[in-house]
Amino acid sequence: MITNDAAASLAINPTEHVKSINALSYDGNALMMDGVSLADIAKTFGTPTYVYSQQAILAAYQAYDDSFAEIDHQICYAVKANSNLAVLNELAKAGSGFDIVTGGELARVLAAGGDPKKIVFSGLGKTAEDIRTALEVGIACFNVESEAELYRINAVAGKLQKQAPISLRVNPNVDAQTHPYISTGLKENKFGITHEDAPRIYQIAHDLPHLKIVGIDCHIGSQLTQVQPFMDALDKVIEMIHALAKQGIALEHIDLGGGLGVQYIDEDVASIEEFAQLLLPKLKTLGLTLYLEPGRSIVANAGVLLTRVDILKPTEHKNFAIVDAAMNDLIRPALYHSEMAVIPTQLNSPVEPKVWDMVGAICETGDFLAKNRVLALADNDILAITGAGAYGFVMSSNYNSRPRACEILVKEGHAHVIRERETVESLWQNEKLVD
Ligand code: LLP
């Protein structure tokens, strides 16, 4: 949690920090991603720029796939974490399925070559149009969040003379012990169907002619660093599976929602292997196919946001480093007060370290990227914000008419532009003057 307390400054040792990040290393003084210098990328493509490692994305996907090899499973990458077509395409080629929440994400996955049969459709507000398209392409399952949605899916499927595969997203009322904005499995949250309501709504689904019950789904929150909340949720879901069996409702799969959290600074995070080892004994007894929808843990530490120090503004009370990225590029610190590490792309700065607030140039006091960081900064230094591959670019905006950043994929030792930096002119391309 970011604090305003100047005494609570945070010094991150860059060489130690990168040891926990598979994609990053220092070669002498230069920060590298898979053999490519990040300072060189900044020089060639400018800043702010998101850079992702193809190798690290695939390694994280593979860790999930391998860790659950003992049971039937399908990893469905949560598209919301990073939806760039090139990222989706790399995952699709590796065999990943996709968890989507809008028609827009469905279109992206299809454009990126994703297999519709490996898509699960989550989200509270699926429109009739979204449902129709999803049925036409033949997705694996709709994760249904309300009784009204069941009727809507049944009606659309009826018109198409199809049977829609569905799961109910049940809300196990488990405290995910994460930030309240990203905690979803408590009964006061807007998501899912309560434990109490689930048998009745499953029965409705069972009786509707154009629905086919295939599974049960839950998702209790994001940035869960420990396995226990997943275990608690699994226990609740298993109880429901047994109750449904007594109702004569048999299932084919269980979907446990998003994946593990990640290390941003020094959080103690369970490994993907440990996560699987703890869950597998219970899952094996069920004999169902497991679906998982990890997002953050696949892409967060496969990415950095590169930013340039633009203006140094030491004041009597605080030292401000105004950088060329801002809350429109990366909103996580402003929105969730999340701490993300900032490390230099070049070590051995000749200047003295000081305590800095790293801020953007947007006209809001909430526009900060990091506070009270011990850093040796000089004009034009290029810094890397780590952990930025997830919920970074996807949550960016054009606030203050700032064109969105460029995105780069490092693959096999080369930097590829996978999204051009927006031009200023593109900002008003959909706007019209009125006479
Ligand atoms: N499945 C569902 C239904 C979800 O709602 C989410 C995330 C996921 C899967 C992926 O969860 P993950 O593996 O990434 O934890 N913008 C926030 C995170 C919001 C997450 C919302 N749901 C952040 O920057 O921390």
UniProtKB/TrEMBL annotation:
The modification N6-(pyridoxal phosphate)lysine is found at residue 80. Its EC number is 4.1.1.20. The keyword Amino-acid biosynthesis applies. Substrate binds at residues 296, 332, 336, 364, 391. Keywords: Amino-acid biosynthesis, Decarboxylase, Lyase, Lysine biosynthesis, Pyridoxal phosphate. PROSITE patterns: ODR_DC_2_1. Homodimer. Belongs to the Orn/Lys/Arg decarboxylase class-II family. LysA subfamily. Specifically catalyzes the decarboxylation of meso-diaminopimelate (meso-DAP) to L-lysine. This is Diaminopimelate decarboxylase. It comes from Faucicola osloensis (Moraxella osloensis). The gene is lysA.
